[in-house]
């Protein structure tokens, strides 16, 4: 098979770097176009960790240049900025995996939690990029909305148990994330002095990922009680999920059966942790039942399964490749 040229717009950011790292080692994709808002530099100048590994030119993002060199492009851009790129790229026949939130929700819900949508036409055919839910649809997708990191960890934990849950009872998701989830921009909240030796909740019950979780589970927003916390780590995410279930059943067997053919979900007999998934596309899951309460623990790397490695799995599926091609599977341990 001939090589497939792909691009990354937003290569100077955190998820952009993870994309570049995966793509320069990918067996079938060739990284042909790398861009940010300014250009006129090289990827190893932006990311010194790539010195001696890759010195691709970084260009000022441009639709024509991107479309003429790529079959598929990854957009690692802020919300709102992403949709301004998606519209012309799709019009030029380029396939897009968008890491932002711009195409994850129906227009009305998106506008309630984000900003007015400027590209409703492409919302009509977008596929939500959680392979365990939409693998078939992804095969023919032209535009994929890569899921949010918290929704990825919550949905993978909850999906196997939705038919065991007592209807209209609260779904409680208590999640912790590393600081790279906020991107490279500086802010008071993510300032070292505020994060170091500290732990706090933010946007409790009203975070913009709650409607994404509710929508994909097919429940009301009011049923999802989602509270994220920032922890003093660079990468990693744990969601502690609690639901009420109707009957006694073997929860571990349900989990194993649900994911028996899934290469990127691992079921653990012990509570999971962040380190064993760091740098990989794995989601590690653990479940424990006490009476009618079910506890599910879900661990991912926010930059990988929560963003960039999941984006490359989606691109593999879109381009008819093996979904595991180029996907790192050994964690940064110890
Ligand atoms: N970080 C995470 O864990 C996750 C992030 N995401 C989503 O992925 C996307 C990227 O996130 P992240 O990597 O953290 O963000 P960063 O803030 O680290 O990077 C943003 C990138 O976008 C580029 N950019 C901004 N504006 C423009 C523009 N007008 N034209 C071209 N490039 C532009 C920046 O380039 P420049 O350096 O030139 O400003 C930079 O490369 C966001 O939508 C985020 O919500 C999704 C899941 C998890
Ligand atoms: C620590 C932190 O701020 N995390 C981000 C979520 C990560 C993310 O980027 O998700 P999106 O793709 O939806 O933007 C947040 O809570 O908004």
From TrEMBL:
GO biological process, one term: L-arginine biosynthetic process
GO function terms (MF aspect): N-acetyl-gamma-glutamyl-phosphate reductase activity; NAD binding; NADP+ binding
Known catalytic reactions: N-acetyl-L-glutamate 5-semialdehyde + phosphate + NADP(+) = N-acetyl-L-glutamyl 5-phosphate + NADPH + H(+)
Keyword annotations: Amino-acid biosynthesis, Arginine biosynthesis, Cytoplasm, NADP, Oxidoreductase
Keyword Nucleotide-binding attributed: no
Pfam families named in the record: Semialdhyde_dh, Semialdhyde_dhC_1
List of catalytic residues: 149
Function field: Catalyzes the NADPH-dependent reduction of N-acetyl-5-glutamyl phosphate to yield N-acetyl-L-glutamate 5-semialdehyde.
Stored HAMAP family: ArgC_type1
Family: Belongs to the NAGSA dehydrogenase family. Type 1 subfamily.
Protein name (record): N-acetyl-gamma-glutamyl-phosphate reductase
Source species: Sulfurimonas gotlandica (strain DSM 19862 / JCM 16533 / GD1)
Designated gene of the protein: argC
């Amino acid at each position: 098979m001939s090589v497939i040229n792909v691009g990354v717009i937003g290569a100077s950011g955190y998820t952009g770097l993870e994309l570049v790292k995966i793509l320069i080692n990918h067996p079938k994709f060739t990284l042909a176009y790398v861009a940010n808002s300014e250009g006129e530099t090289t990827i190893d100048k932006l990311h010194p960790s790539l010195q001696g590994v890759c010195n691709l030119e970084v260009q000022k993002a441009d639709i024509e240049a991107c479309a003429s060199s790529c079959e598929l492009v990854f957009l690692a851009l802020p919300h709102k900025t992403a949709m301004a790129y998606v519209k012309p790229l799709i019009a030029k026949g380029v396939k897009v995996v968008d890491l932002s939130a711009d195409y994850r929700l129906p227009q009305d819900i998106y506008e309630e939690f984000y900003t007015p949508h400027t590209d409703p036409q492409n919302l009509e055919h977008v596929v939500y990029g959680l392979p365990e839910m939409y693998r078939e649809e992804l095969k023919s997708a032209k535009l994929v909305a890569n899921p949010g990191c918290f929704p990825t960890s919550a949905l993978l934990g909850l999906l196997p148990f939705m038919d065991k849950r007592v209807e209209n009872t609260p779904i409680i998701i208590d999640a912790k994330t590393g600081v790279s989830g906020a991107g490279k921009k500086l802010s008071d909240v993510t300032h070292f002095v505020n994060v170091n030796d500290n732990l706090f909740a933010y946007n409790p019950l009203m975070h913009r990922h709650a409607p994404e979780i509710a929508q994909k589970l097919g429940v009301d927003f009011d049923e999802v009680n989602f509270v994220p916390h920032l922890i003093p780590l660079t990468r990693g995410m744990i969601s502690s999920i609690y639901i009420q279930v109707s009957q006694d059943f073997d929860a571990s067997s349900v989990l194993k059966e649900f994911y028996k053919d899934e290469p990127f979900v691992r079921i653990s007999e012990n509570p999971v942790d962040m380190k064993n998934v760091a740098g990989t596309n794995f989601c590690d899951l653990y479940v424990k039942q006490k009476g009618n309460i079910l506890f599910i623990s879900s661990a991912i790397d926010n930059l990988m399964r929560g963003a960039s490695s999941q984006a490359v799995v989606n691109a593999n599926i879109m381009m008819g490749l093996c979904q595991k091609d180029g996907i790192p599977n050994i964690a940064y341990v110890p």
